[in-house]
Structures are given as C-alpha cells and as structure tokens.
From TrEMBL:
Species name: Tauraco erythrolophus
Alphabetical GO biological process terms: adherens junction organization; calcium-dependent cell-cell adhesion via plasma membrane cell adhesion molecules; cell migration; cell morphogenesis; cell-cell adhesion mediated by cadherin; cell-cell junction assembly; homophilic cell adhesion via plasma membrane adhesion molecules; synaptic membrane adhesion
Top-rank taxon, per record: Eukaryota
InterPro entries: Cadherin (IPR039808), Cadherin-like_dom (IPR002126), Cadherin-like_sf (IPR015919), Cadherin_CS (IPR020894), MHD (IPR028565)
Record's GO cellular component terms: adherens junction; catenin complex
Keyword Metal-binding: yes
Protein name per Swiss-Prot or TrEMBL: Cadherin-10
Amino acid sequence: MTIQQVLLLLLLWMWLLHPGHTELLFRRTPDLRPKNSGGRSSGNDGKAIHRQKRGWMWNQFFLLEEYTGSDYQYVGKLHSDQDKGDGSLKYILSGDGAGTLFIIDEKTGDIHATRRIDREEKAFYTLRAQAINRRTLRPVEPESEFVIKIHDINDNEPTFPEEIYTASVPEMSVVGTSVVQVTATDADDPSYGNSARVIYSILQGQPYFSVEPETGIIRTALPNMNRENREQYQVVIQAKDMGGQMGGLSGTTTVNITLTDVNDNPPRFPQSTIHLRIPESSPVGTAIGSVKATDADTGKNAEVEYRIIDGDGTDMFDIVTQKDTQEGIITVRKPLDYETRRLYTLKVEAENTHVDPRFYYLGPFKDTTIVKISVEDVDEPPVFSRSSYLFEVHEDIELGTIIGTVMARDPDSASSPIR
C-alpha cells in the first residue's frame, strides 16, 4: 500500500468521525443551455433526442493544516460522470491558490496541496472546477464553485493577554469570594474537537486561593486570611487546551494578589498606666503631654478618638485628638494649685471611629489606660496681709522703738520660711 493510499484511508476515517467538517462544498453555476419541460429537444429532422443527465461526481474530503509529509498532501478528486477514462477530458482548477497552493492533475482530477497550510491564517479556500473536451475545448460540465475547508489541528497553546495581573481582595473574606477573572484565548478552531477548549488550574497559590476550571475566576479558598499576618500572595494559573487532557498545550500567567485592610483590630495602649508632670503655674490650655494607642490596621481603619471617661480630674483637664499623629493631647482646663492638690488620676479611652459591623465579634474596638498627673510646686512670693499699712509716731521717739508690725505669708509649704 502506498503512502498516498494510507493517507487517504486516514483522511476517510477522520471524515467518518466528523462528517460535518469533511465535505467539499460546492454550488453549480446555472446551466445556460436551452432546455424544454419534457426533457427532450427536437432537431431539424423532428426526431426527439434524449439527453443524458450529466453531473460532477464529488468525493467528500478535507484538508488538515500543518501537514508535515515530504510529498504533496492529497486533497481530493474532481470527477465527471462523462469521463470515460480515455484521457479525452481535461480538468481545470481556478480560484484561491489555484496553480500555486493547489494543483490539479488535468487528466485524473486529483488535487494536491503544495505546502503546509495554517488554518489560523486562512480557514477555507474558494475554488472553481471545470471539465472540457480536449479535442473540441468545449465544456462538458458547467463551471462549479466549491470550498475547501482546512481542518484544525491543535497547534496553538492558550495565551493570556497579560503576563502579570494585579488584584486585591479584602482580608477576612469568606471562602469563595471572587478575586479576579483571567481569560486565555486559543487560536485553534473552537468548532472542531477540543483543540480550543481551555481548562484552568492553579499551579501556585494553594491552599489560599482556587480557580474555577471553566471560567478562570480566582476565589479565596481559606477563611480569615489576615493582612496583618501576610499581605501579598503570588498565584500562578495554567490554561490548558484539549479540555485539560493529557497532550494538551498550555500557557500560564501570574496574578499578584494583595489583601486590603479591614477594621479587624482594636486600638491598644502600650501601657496600663501613664505618668505626667505639670508645674502648678501652667496657664489654662497648656499641653501636659500625650497618650497614644496603637492599631494594627491602616488608614481610616486605624483612626481613633480619645476621651476622658473617669477620674478625679475630669473637671481640671481636657484631651484633644490629634488627627495627623493619632495622639491624645492632654491640656489644662482650670488653674492648678500645688498646695490644694498635688495628684490627679484620669481614665482615658481610645476608640476606633470606623467600625465594620461584620467584625463586631472581634471587639470591643476600644481600650483604656490610667493617666496620673503630678502637680509640681513653684516657689511663689510672700503675700502681705494688707496692701498698705499706716503707723503714727511722735517726733521725739527714741531709736529702736517699735512703731508697728507688718505680716506676710508664704503660699508655699512651711519649709519655705519668710525672712
């Protein structure tokens, strides 16, 4: 059996599997020869002449792309029922690629392709067939048009439009949350076999993420993924044709996924007790010091508001939230007096201003600390009991005579005597 016969049998077998793809399509041009309704025509002698029904005899065949054989690829055979095999007919081929890409044996009607054909460049070729009598050069068949369809082979791997994708998903998302969809395309024929049927799988990024095989949608696969523990993930997705079966071609892409922040962390004071000192002479509005709670979240999720909620100095001090530094600045509200009170205790609270209801169960989103404020003594001048004194004395009084007494007191402690 020759190579050509083996190839023909192989093509015939493939046609039987996919008959809808293996036909050589054609349509005839109208036959302009006069006809009568009875199928007869009368000559000059008045005798009826019976005309034989003529027609092309088309073989059903197809052409595979990317043929790698050393000889020309056999396409098919044109044959007229008027061909008696005596070489009196000549077959002529015209149209797309005739004479260059497609050649015909003018005696037998066999058509061959002269080179490899890529279906992705051109999926079909429209040609015209004609059979003429070699002696008279008159057509024995009307010119007919047919289409050679190029059948696909799996010669293109799936490709992604981007080599690297970037995506984000909120931390603490529930399992199955959609992150991003990646889509690969395959240049092979989607209507023929599974050459262009792409299946997605994940090569890197488990167990944190998964991908839907049919759609390429990447989803979260683990619950409670915490940005504070890990923020960046790299996922590698494979797209494989032939429905993912062995032997299919594949392509990959990388997806960099960032966990975005949600408010899942309450503020925390680093110390349970904070000590501050302030001179008693400090005017109202003086900043004594600051307190600051830390929050593992970022942006608005880490914003806090400070307030004094208890203590024996609630009427003596204020606290103001500094937005840019997220500190609580404690200031003097009323004048201080060391001799009246030397120590104040405040209970300060820091609370998140943007709380996500989904994470109430992780709360409360606030914390407290104790602030102890010591008032420092300042050496104050003595104070006389009167602003002025008036004493009378005789002009002839003796030296050293006591003419009166003035009194002053020291607002400071008794350890500061007046001289």
